[in-house]
Every structure is written in structure tokens, then in C-alpha cells.
Amino acid sequence: MGSSPSLPCRLRDAMTGAKRARRKEARPGELLQAALDLFVEKGFAATRSEDVAARAGVSKGTLFLYFGSKDELFKAVVTENLAGRFTEWNQEFESFEGSSPEMLRYALNTWWQRVGSTQVSGISKLMMSEGRNFPELSAFYHQSVVAPGNALVRRILERGIARGEFRAMDLDQAVHAVVAPLLFMILWKHAPEVCGGAAALDPARYLAAQADLLLHGMCTRQGLAADGGAAGS
């Protein structure tokens, strides 16, 4: 009869198997990160599936085990980094205890910290530049990111009106007025040469100025008194 494997061999095999299992579990995340990197660097059209696989250190066949197409991969990147976070962000809305002017300032600044200043904002820039060429992806992005984002801004404005802190306004257009400065910041981050240069804008000062402009236009006297920022001065 043959001898059974020695304990060190069994231990080594077990460790190898555990390492492979961890690697397999991590692989979708590694592929999503590689895809995000390349989509932001090169755009959607210029990014090839084999480039994503190579960046993640796997074969193209392995990539398609997890994501059936480049379109599916892009949708997964959007869901992982943007669309999948709206549950958390709406929960923050529900638990926020400050005034509505304070909430609007908080929303603008935390958006910059969590999205605008990060690589993820390159996805929004990509959709602005390439979305027309990929109508299905554009529709997906609008449904999963733009629409819920606008709805969250609208909730902030509605809260302020209901509490007497904001005056009555055309909410459809007011939402665009809030979002527009954020879109400009994305363009500034990813195309600074056409937005006055990388040193031409200080994000914190810019957002504070935009909040002041918005709030002086939206706030009632009660809202201005409740605002903890510069709009109350």
C-alpha cells in the first residue's frame, strides 16, 4: 500500500487551495477595478475586453466567465461604484438632522469627496462624451444614476420647501441648477485644459460659492437664518 501524504504536504495543499479560493473570490473586484481604470483612461469604445483581462492578470476567457460582454462589464462598473450606493445615500437623507440649507451644503461636499474627486467621476465624463454612440448604455446610466441622483436632490429641495426654509420654486429646473456645478467639476477634473487649467479652481471654495448662490436664490428668511454656512451672513 502506498503511504499517505505527509502532514506538511497536506498543509501545503490546503494553503494552496485556500489561496486559490481567495483569489477566485477577489477576481470580480479586480476585473471591475481594471475595467474602471481603462474606461476612464481610454474611454468605452477604445477599451478592449482583452485589455481589461490583461490589466487584471487573467485570460479573456476568465473575464467572460464573470461578465458576458463588455457592455455587461460596464454596467457592473457603474452599479458597483455609483448606482449601488443610492440606498446608502437615501438612508443618510432620512437620518439627517440639520436644516435643509445645511443638508444641501453637505450633499454638495460629500458628493465631491466620495465621487467627484475620485476616479469614479470619469464614468460620468465618459457618458457625456460617448453616451450618444451607445444608446443602450446611455439609457442604463440615466435610469440607474442620473434619475435617482436627480430624485435625491429633489427630495432635499422638497424638504426645504415643506419646512419653510426654501421658497416655492420650479423643482424640475432647480434640480438642474444644483447638478450643473457638479458636472462642471467633473469636466474640470478630467479636462482641465478646457476649463481654465488645473490650478484655476479650488473645489472647496467653488462648492461654497455655488452653495451661497443657490441658497440666496432659494432660501426664505427662515432658511437663511437656519443656514450654518456663508449664506446666513
Approximately what portion of the residues adopt beta-strand conformation? under 5%
Bulk shape? elongated
Order of helices and strands: HHHHHHHHHHH
Main sheet specs: none
Count of individual beta strands: 0
CATH class of the largest domain: Mainly Alpha
Low-confidence blocks of residues? 14-22
CATH architecture of the largest domain: Orthogonal Bundle
CATH topology of the largest domain: Tetracycline Repressor, domain 2
> Over all CA atoms, what is the radius of gyration?
23 Å
Number of domains: 2
Distance between the termini: 90 Å
Instruction: Provide the residue-averaged pLDDT.
Output: 88
* Helix-residue proportion: over 70%
Q: What is the number of helical segments per DSSP (H or I, 4+ residues)?
A: 11
Structural class: mainly alpha
